[in-house]
Amino acid sequence: MTEAQRGAGMTSARTRERLIGRVREQGVRDARTLEALAAVPRHLFVDEALATRAYEDTALPIGHGQTISQPYIVARMTAALRTTGPLDKVLEIGTGSGYQAAVLAQLAGCLYTVERVGGLLRGARRRFQTLRLTNIVSRHSDGYEGWPEEAPFDAIMVTAAARTVPEALFAQLKEGGRLIVPIGAEGQELFLYRRRGVAMVCERLEAVNFVPLLPGEIA
Ligand code: SAH
What we know:
alpha/beta; Rossmann fold; seven-stranded mixed β-sheet; two-stranded antiparallel ribbon; 7 helices; binds S-adenosyl-L-homocysteine
C-alpha cells in the first residue's frame, strides 16, 4: 500500500461513517446534526501529521496551545442548538481550526465566528475557502464582546470555557434565542440558556473539558 492509499483509507467515507456511528451510540440522535458532521472532512482541520487520527473521537492539538474539540462534543453542542429553534443567524466564539464553524455552517443560514488568535483565524479562513463555505463570516476580536454590529442572533455557541457567562452574549440573543457555553475552570459543565423576555432559562447538559476563554486579542 502506498502512503497515498493509506492516507485515503484513513479519511475515507467508511472511516467517517464509523465516527458518526460512535457519536450516535453516545446519544446524539438528531439526523440533521449527524449529516452535518458527516459532510465535513475533519482531517482538513488538523495538521497533516495528525490527519490519520482525525476520525477518532478525541480532541487534537491545533497549535497555539489550543485544541479542535472532540467530535462527540461538537455534535452534542450542535444538536442542542439545532433541536431547540431556528439557526438563521448564528454566532460562534472561538473559531480555532474552524471545524465547529464548518459543521454549524451546514445547518445555519449565516454563521459568524470570532477568534482572538490571528494565526488560528488565518488557517481557518483558508479552510473555509477551500471548502467553499461562503456562509461563514469571521472576525479577529475578543469574543467576550460578541459581535454587537451583527446582533441579535438566533443562537450563540462558545467553544472555550468561561468562569461566568459573558454578559454581552446574553444581550445579543433574539427572544427565544439559545446560548450554549461551557462554564468553570477545573471542573467544567456545559450549559444551555434560553432567552425568555428579560429572563434566561438555564439547563445543565454535562461535564466537559475545554480550553479557557481568554481576554484580549493576539496576533
Ligand atoms: N471551535 C474550535 C475549538 C477551538 S478551542 C474548533 O472547532 O477547532 C477554543 C478557541 O477559542 C481557541 O482557538 C481560542 O483561541 C479561542 N478563544 C479563547 N478565548 C477567546 C476569546 N475571548 N475570543 C475569541 N476566541 C477565543
